[in-house]
Design a protein that fits this description.
Helix content: 40-55%
Strand content: 5-15%
CATH superfamily of the largest domain: Aldolase class I
Bound molecules: flavin mononucleotide
Strand order of the largest sheet: 3-10-9-8-7-6-5-4
CATH class of the largest domain: Alpha Beta
Largest sheet: 8 strands, parallel
Radius of gyration: 20 Å
Number of domains: 2
């Protein structure tokens, strides 16, 4: 791949700076995280957490907060979920009015409280043309590119992604992102590259974005080679290694790539991400909101358990700062602070998806 001149990736008239996208991870890929990953470089497109279309239409402040962006967070897409074509259309028009670059329709969410309403991956069970009508209604209401994110289907007996991909392309969808698992699989097993390839083969011209289990440059290159997908989106792998997008662009243009960030680089990233949260919400709220993310930083940095705990229970700016200072002094457990950190595993919800 590195020996070929890469073709620019476009969603309709939107030209993307790379083919390596940040996948939405609700609760993690918020604006402060997107900003630090963008600053490292290499991201083609970042998408918000899934946003409830109805709540957007009803003006929920918390929902609008999910759609906030920043000049450096560009190009960016807002992902909406819902099942009512009119509500999805109204939400899309609101977003267009706010200047988002692209809208993504969620057809992949496996979580029970979303699928119970007929949204998320439940849309992939539609036996008739209702879901195509939903997509067409959104497309006809806005001028910006609209994409769809899907799973392979509801379960292995209902693999509907190739058929829907073809139908959505015919009505004007700009790109399809496909997570190579069924809804029934949740996050179990390994990504089904053959399933992604079938979606690539089903479409004629629009880009297909492959997704699932990409943790390294080699995983992404392998996914593209085996499936023929035009782009790759990375979720958990970006939490573990926010440098992965830059590494991918380096690899694509030069054939080699630099190491991911060291302990000290990650510490600087942690502080920058925290500062963006603080800028927006004030210190106290930021300290509490940052806990979820702090957990992953501390894990990836091999921070010892007692210090990880201190970071987790910090309630004030002072407690947070002193925990970070102690972490900085201690360095990574049993490792050289400027060396390579071991790869981190990001756990996901387990058990039957009905109960998530
Ligand atoms: C905690 C978590 C939250 C997620 N939230 C969303 C979401 O809001 N919208 C979405 O389309 N996918 C969501 N996903 C799915 C991911 O975008 C991605 O499809 C999946 O994790 C597989 O890719 P990965 O192996 O690169 O993480 C979520 C996954 C996780 C683990």
């Amino acid at each position: 791949m590195s020996s070929q001149t890469p073709q620019p990736l476009c969603y309709g008239s939107l030209r993307l700076p790379s083919r390596w996208h940040l996948s939405p991870l609700a609760g993690f890929t918020n604006l402060p995280f997107r900003r630090v990953v963008r600053e490292i470089g290499g991201v083609g497109l970042a998408t918000t957490d899934l946003v409830n279309a109805r709540a957007l239409v009803e003006g929920s402040e918390k929902t609008f907060e999910l759609t906030e962006t920043h000049p450096t967070d560009s190009p960016f897409a807002v992902q909406i979920f819902g099942h009512d074509p009119q509500v999805m259309r109204d939400a899309a028009q609101i977003l267009e009015g706010r200047g988002v670059d692209s809208i993504d329709i969620n057809m992949g969410c496996p979580v029970d409280h979303v699928t119970r309403t007929g949204a998320g991956s439940k849309l992939m069970c539609d036996p008739n043309t209702t879901v195509v009508r939903l997509v067409r209604t959104v497309l006809e209401a806005v001028r910006l590119p609209v994409t769809v994110k899907m799973r392979l289907g509801w379960d292995e007996t209902r693999i509907t992604a190739p058929r829907f991909a073809r139908e959505f392309e015919q009505v004007g969808i700009a790109a399809i992102a496909i997570h190579g698992r069924t809804r029934a699989q949740g996050f179990t097993g390994i990504v089904n590259l053959d399933g992604i390839r079938q979606v690539v083969e089903a479409i004629e011209a629009i880009p297909v974005v492959g997704n699932g289990d990409v943790r390294t440059v080699e995983d992404a290159v392998h996914m593209r080679r085996v499936t023929g997908c035009h782009a790759v989106s990375i979720g958990r792998g970006a939490l573990a290694n926010p440098w992965i997008f830059r590494q991918l662009v380096e690899h694509e243009t030069t054939g080699s790539y630099g190491p991911p960030g060291s302990f000290d680089d990650r510490l600087r990233l942690l502080l920058r991400q925290f500062s963006y949260l603080e800028e927006r919400h004030g210190s106290e709220k930021a300290v509490v909101r940052f806990r979820k993310m702090a957990h992953w930083y501390a894990k990836s940095m091999r921070v010892r358990a007692s210090l990880r705990h201190r970071l987790q229970i910090a309630k004030t700016r002072e407690e947070f700062t002193s925990a970070v200072e102690a972490i900085a002094v201690a360095g990574p457990r049993g490792l050289d602070r400027s060396g390579l950190l071991p790869a981190m595993h990001v756990a996901v919800p387990s058990g039957p998806v009905e109960r998530w």
